[in-house]
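Practice problem: tRNA 2-thiouridine synthesizing protein D
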Amino acid sequence: MTSPTSLAFTLVITGAPYSSQAPQTALSFAQAVIAEGHSIDRVFLYGDGVHLASALSTPPSDETNWSLAWAEFLIEHGIPGVACIASALRRGVLNSEEQQRYERSAANLVTPYQLLGLGEWVESIASTSKTLYFHGEH
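Answer key — structure tokens:
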């Protein structure tokens, strides 16, 4: 439960795991936010950030699996994870509905992420104290 002086955050991740530090930096920030008694309304993946929601990412055993680390964090703290549907479809990240719709051989969206539109992002930033962006390298 949040106190009257606590902040609510929306986090937007646009950098892909393994090609940018965005997911790692965002997770460290999110852990600190929760530890300080603040809240996170939702985590929104956009652009290459949607790769974080792919179940097909398989890093070597001596590297952190950022998709798994983020999924576990979101589930543990009851934070919604949203992947922009347009960004996800362009990058081959599909849930079962989109798999059927586009007649693809598999779905690969990691639980607890949902594929939703930019309206979710707009709604979240309108209802939170702060929105932070974690961008990939360009």
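Discussion: The chain has five helices and five strands. Students who identified this feature from the tokens alone can consider the problem solved.
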